[in-house]
Design a protein that fits this description.
258 residues, alpha/beta, Rossmann fold, six-stranded parallel sheet
Length: 258
C-alpha cells in the first residue's frame, strides 16, 4: 500500500472512535461533549443549500491562479490535480459565458518588494517560479480570456482581494455570488472564499474544480467552508443551476434531507 493510501486509511475513523472515543470517556470530559462533537461532525458534512439562492445574473466565476507554473506539467510548481481539472474549469468558464456571468482570472506573482517571508522557504520560488513579468506567472495556455473578462495580475498574496481591484470590479458588475475555482484549494482558493464571505458575497465553492497537493488538506477546506462559509458542490451541479435555476436543486436537496 502506498504512503498516501495508508495515511488515508489510518486517518479514517468509525463512529465509535470519533476524535478518540477513549479520550471522550476520560475523566474531565464535559457532560454532552460527545453529542456536541457528533453534531459538529454532521454539520461539517451537510451542504447548506438553503442558505442563499444562486441567481445567474448575480454570479461571477473566479479562476484562481491557474497559471503556467502551477498547471503546466513541465514547470517547477505544477500541481498535478490542477492540470487534471483544466477541462472541468474550462467547461465552467464556457457555461458562465453562455449565461452572461462574468469570469475573472487571477495570477499570483512574486517580486522582491512584495514577497512574504515564507516564500524564501520554497525553492522553486527562490529559483524564479511565478516571478512577476515572467512567462510562468501567466495564465495557463488553455485559458484564453475574451473581451470583458478581467485578469487580476497584481495579486501578490494568497487572497485574491488583498491589494487588488477585484472587489471594485465585482461590485461594478453587480455581482452578489462568487463561484470559486482554481488552485491551491487550501491556500489561495480558500483565502479568496473567506475574504469574499467577509465582504458580504455569497460563496459557491467547487468541490472538483479546486485543486491542491493533499487530499486531506482539500477535504479540510471543503469541510470548513461547507459548515460556515459556502455552498459546496461539484462543477456539474453548478452548471446545471446556472442553466436551469436553483429551485429544482434546492428542492431535491430538501427532499433527500427529509
Amino acid at each position: 500500500m502506498d504512503p498516501v493510501s495508508r495515511f488515508l486509511r489510518e486517518y479514517q475513523r468509525d463512529e465509535n472512535e470519533l476524535l478518540g472515543a477513549d479520550r471522550l470517556r476520560a475523566p474531565g470530559v464535559f457532560e454532552g461533549e460527545r453529542e456536541f462533537i457528533e453534531f459538529a461532525e454532521r454539520d461539517y458534512t451537510t451542504d447548506k443549500h438553503w442558505a442563499f439562492e444562486i441567481r445567474p445574473a448575480e454570479c461571477a466565476l473566479i479562476v484562481v491562479d491557474m497559471q503556467e507554473d502551477f498547471v503546466n506539467p513541465d514547470n517547477p510548481m505544477c500541481v498535478p490535480e490542477a492540470y487534471r481539472q483544466v477541462p472541468r474549469i474550462r467547461s465552467l468558464v464556457e457555461c458562465c459565458r453562455s449565461v452572461g456571468a462574468p469570469v475573472f482570472y487571477t495570477e499570483h506573482t512574486i517580486a522582491p518588494d512584495v514577497a512574504h517571508d515564507f516564500y524564501e522557504f520554497w525553492p522553486p520560488i527562490k529559483a524564479g517560479a511565478i516571478a512577476e513579468g515572467k512567462p510562468g506567472s501567466k495564465l495557463y495556455r488553455e485559458f484564453q480570456p475574451v473581451d470583458g473578462e478581467r485578469v487580476i495580475s497584481a495579486k501578490h498574496n494568497y487572497d485574491s482581494f488583498a491589494g487588488t481591484d477585484l472587489d471594485y470590479a465585482l461590485r461594478n458588475r453587480g455581482v452578489r455570488t462568487l463561484i470559486i475555482s482554481g488552485t491551491l484549494t487550501n491556500f489561495c482558493c480558500e483565502s479568496t472564499a473567506r475574504t469574499g464571505y467577509f465582504l458580504g458575497y455569497h460563496i459557491v465553492f467547487g468541490s472538483d474544480v479546486n485543486a491542491t497537493d493533499s487530499a486531506l488538506a482539500h477535504d479540510a477546506t471543503l469541510r470548513t467552508l461547507r459548515r460556515g462559509f459556502a455552498r459546496v458542490m461539484d462543477h456539474q451541479q453548478i452548471m446545471e443551476i446556472l442553466r436551469t435555476g436553483d429551485a429544482p436543486h434546492r428542492e431535491a436537496v430538501a427532499a433527500r434531507q427529509g
